[in-house]
């Protein structure tokens, strides 16, 4: 019985490790000159497995120049095609310095996005700005992953464990 329990434990740990293998924690950097435009098609895509992801203000800011009114701005957009959700972190208000643009939104820009497709999906990242007058500066988003196990899988795992415990209990009683 000890061998079976150990085998179940090892298989469970392996499944847990591989279930998080495609999650995307860390940071996403958007280049303001390369990935800005009127909509998500100007940006780039990253693949996300099923789960809940929190995106928040990271660092950096971008600025405008030329005939367009200048100033530092912290904004970054995320587009989820399956839901049509287009979210802007930060806003398009201009500030005198990049630090001021970042500190203005350091505590108020955070969003959770749930990916709920059997095979995962791509999210698009871009800066919503139709101006070509952007200096090359990066906006960074923190990505926190809160992977939530599928309810059916968790239920089956618990039921399987209860069956093994019940069998062991009944064998000891006999």
Question: What's the total number of strands?
Answer: 11
CATH fold topology = Jelly Rolls
Overall form: elongated
Overall helicity:
25-40%
Structural class: alpha+beta
CATH architecture classification name? Sandwich
Number of separate helices = 3
Strand content: 35-45%
- The average pLDDT is 77
Per CATH, the class reads Mainly Beta
Q: Compute the separation of the termini in Å.
A: 16 Å
Number of domains: 1
Question: Can you summarize the main beta sheet?
Answer: 5 strands, mixed
Order of helices and strands: HEEEEEEEEHEEEH
Poorly predicted parts: none
Q: What does the radius of gyration come to?
A: 23 Å
Written overview of the protein:
- The protein has helices at 2-19, 98-104, 151-173; strands at residues 26-31, 36-37, 44-48, 51-60, 62-64, 71-73, 75-80, 85-90, 110-115, 121-128, 138-146.
- The mean pLDDT is 77.
- By secondary structure, the protein is α+β, with helices and mostly antiparallel strands.
- The protein has a single domain (24-147), classed as Jelly Rolls, CATH 2.60.120.
Keywords:
174 residues, alpha+beta, Jelly Rolls, 5-stranded mixed β-sheet, 4-stranded antiparallel β-sheet
Short description:
With 174 residues, the chain is of the alpha+beta class. The protein has helices at residues 2-19, 98-104, 151-173, and strands at 26-31, 36-37, 44-48, 51-60, 62-64, 71-73, 75-80, 85-90, 110-115, 121-128, 138-146.
